[in-house]
Amino acid sequence: MSQEFILETRDLIKEFKGFVAVNGVNLQVKRGQIHALIGPNGAGKTTVFNLLTKFLIPTSGKILFNDKDITGEKPAQIARRGIVRSFQISATFPNLTVVENVRIALQRSAGLSMQFWRSERVLDGLNERAMQLLAEVDLQDMADLTAVELPYGRKRALEIATTLAMEPELMLLDEPTQGMGHEDVDRVTQLIKKVSANRTILMVEHNMNVVAKIADTISVLQRGQVIAEGPYAVVSQNPQVLEAYMGTADNQLEGAHG
Question: Hey, where are the domains in the chain?
Answer without folding.
Answer: 2-221+234-255
